[in-house]
Specification:
Layout: H1 27-30, E1 48-57, E2 65-69, E3 73-79, E4 82-87, E5 91-95, E6 101-102, E7 109-118, E8 122-130, E9 144-155, E10 160-171, E11 179-190, E12 195-204, E13 213-225, E14 228-237, E15 247-257
Antiparallel strand pairs: 1-2, 1-3, 1-15, 2-5, 3-4, 4-7, 5-6, 7-8, 8-9, 9-10, 10-11, 11-12, 12-13, 13-14, 14-15
Length: about 260
């Protein structure tokens, strides 16, 4: 006798809700990219995400920063949708007068990021950081004292994700009296279950009195393990200022504990 839904022994299959964007392994939602675009998803409570980056200028001309390392960021989940972040001091290799080598060290920064909205296809977050490390492009006392950002990501298709970030920073000299905004748009595409290719285009300010710089880059993220990823990228500044290098390459390694 065929089983009927009205009979006591019949059990409906469990209904599975769509996976939240922040619960996926999509790097566009969960990892900061080599260009510095922050992810919109906070680390889960009790977990620690370690992100490292090596940045290298790749232009023959120009006398500013040559390399920056290790650019380590620690992201720890402290509550649902809330993480604390720490940027550890890093070394910047620069060329000084007459080509002399200079090796200043960045400051340590600390802040919070809160994912205020998330669904199966969307996530958005606010972030704030005090005394952030100097830019990977230069070490300057005019670097900002505070940085605030809004980041968001939207899954267009099962393979394509569009992200954006808007950032405002205040200089050390004038506090909150002057804010420098910057914005970046990022498009990512999953070429396989473990590989994602992305490209960024945006603007940034590397110091208080510097002109806005427009840049573009491309990167590839490869998941080596469920908790470990490797990313490499290359980019260029379309309007570099005088005596500044335009092209750069970067590579980073991320791993999650828990």
């Amino acid at each position: 006798m065929p089983c009927d839904a009205q009979q006591p022994g019949f059990t409906l299959p469990p209904q599975t809700a769509p996976l939240n964007a922040c619960s996926t392994q999509n790097p566009a939602f969960t990892l900061d990219d080599p260009a510095g675009v922050a992810s919109p998803c906070a680390v889960a409570p009790g977990a620690l995400l370690v992100e490292t980056l090596y940045y290298q200028n790749a232009s023959r001309e120009g006398g500013t920063a040559l390399a920056a390392y290790p650019l380590v960021r620690l992201r720890a989940g402290i509550a649902h949708h809330l993480e604390v972040l720490i940027d550890t001091p890093s070394q910047i290799a620069m060329s000084g007068i007459g080509g002399a080598g200079l090796y200043p060290t960045t400051r340590a920064g600390y802040g919070l990021s809160y994912t205020f909205a998330s669904s199966a296809a969307f996530a958005a977050a606010f972030g704030a950081e005090a005394v952030p490390p100097s830019s990977r492009f230069t070490v300057d006392q005019a670097q900002p004292r505070y940085v605030f950002d809004f980041s968001g990501g939207f899954r267009l298709t099962p393979r394509a994700t569009l992200s954006a970030i808007a950032t405002g920073s205040s200089s050390r000299q004038v506090g909150f009296e002057r804010i420098f905004p910057a914005a970046t748009l990022r498009a990512a595409y999953d070429t396989s279950a473990v590989t994602q290719v992305s490209t960024d285009i945006g603007t940034r300010f590397i110091a208080r009195h510097a002109a806005a710089q427009t840049y573009g880059d491309v990167s590839v993220s490869e998941r080596l393990h469920k908790n470990a990823s490797l990313a490499i990228g290359a980019g260029t500044t379309f309007n570099p200022v005088t005596n500044e290098k335009a092209h750069y390459v970067a590579s980073g390694f991320s791993f999650r504990i828990k």
